[in-house]
Amino acid sequence: MVCTSQALAAQAGLDMLKKGGNAVDAALATAIALTVLEPTGNGLGSDLFALIWTDGRLYGLNGSGHSPAKMTPHILAEQGYTEMPLYGWLPVMVPGAPAAWYVLHERFGRLPFAELFGPAVAYARNGYALMPTVGTLMKSEYEKYASFNDNPAFAGLFKTFYTNGIPPVGSLLTLPDHAKSLQSLAETNCTSLYTGELADAIDAFSQKTGGLLCKDDLAAYKPLWVEPLYTTYKGYDVWELPPNGQGVVVLMALNILNGMDFKNRDDTGSVHTQIEALKLALTDGKKYIADARFMKTPPAYWLSEEYAATRRAQISAEALLPEPIDPGSGGTVYLCSADHEGNMVSLIQSNYDGFGSGIVIPGYGIALNNRGHNFSNDPYSDNAIGPRKRSYHTIIPGFLSKDGAPIGPFGVMGAFMQPQGQLQILTNMIDSHLNPQAALDAPRWQWKGGKYIEVETNFPVKLREALRQKGHDITINPEVAPYGRGTNHLAH
């Protein structure tokens, strides 16, 4: 079984299962294919996080990249900025995904590593029909980066993805430079991106166009095996990866909600309380989550009943006004896989925002992430800008188990929507007893900061109005992408 947002990518994973591969092989082939098939959300310059269930336990992999050594606390002022820009070289971090592909395969994979690249290389070289969702995103991404058209640092973006302008839906999209880089990664166990030809190309283009990232930064990078965190919510164990990711926010919110009754998902009080719990948890997460080496307060506190009780007591009948954030829609892909042996993978991969920084290495098709945008501008923050440091990370794969037995992986996409979407899916299933598909399909809300809530068009009208009476500023957003879509393989 393989679930993801793009059918051809899922087929790439299924092909590995048919060849005798396991769930890890399937997940990796899917992830690699998605860099070609959904380039608006991820690529060869992405980061990756994964949860792997095998041999009766869960393993965690943090494949997020660190900042360049030259990203000092004073870099913004030195370059004339008051805050971290979203695009350009400054927010670029070391790509973690390719290295994570290899270490994940080395530990748990079965098929030859290079074989996992076959479908992706074929799609990149021979082309594929542009599907409506990605076609729409290609247009919006072009408009987003259009102002950089004359900037030499962005030349690779337009040459790689917009050779003949915005590609129409249904047209054949080929990515020959991307295919070349994929082939290089396959032949070198991904080392070419960190110490070989691809690293040289990144280093040279960075030096030429004003980047901080250099070959030494790439060579110094290693993914991290980490111990997953969990909380028990109404008999179910909900698993997330530890910081620097925001998965702990989901667990914090669930702990605040534990013991409350949410059987009726359309009950005003239930939805109001869930929104308030999420607002409190996400506000704290944004302030305190960072590279684990720099966090002054350990995750254990955020998962404690002391913390949950303190925040639970602050929820009232009226909408709170915590420190605001702007979640945004992000650029991410999520996938999950399972095999007949009981192995399961929950994996998420992202540029952070669309094509990321907008920097694409000419001749290689490597779109570099802009994850450094999630550093805090506060020099006293645990998440402050610094050299060789991992920033706060939005992408979070989830996993559910009960009584020591796996139920399955789950996840959604969309930057700061991810903990919100996960919370809603979990309460839909556990509290309202919806089946997995219904839990995904149910109309969602998204906190956008302050008292501002966006809801999908099919969100119940009476519930909308009742939430307004509680002080929530409700707006309908008809777009689908901001609500995170999502995938799960939950045997509920």
Automatic annotation (TrEMBL):
Keyword terms: Transferase
GO molecular-function terms, A-Z: transferase activity
Superkingdom of origin: Bacteria
Cross-referenced Pfam families: G_glu_transpept
InterPro entries: GGT-like_enzyme, GGT_ssub_C, Ntn_hydrolases_N
Protein name: Putative gamma-glutamyltransferase
Source organism (scientific name): Anaeroglobus geminatus F0357
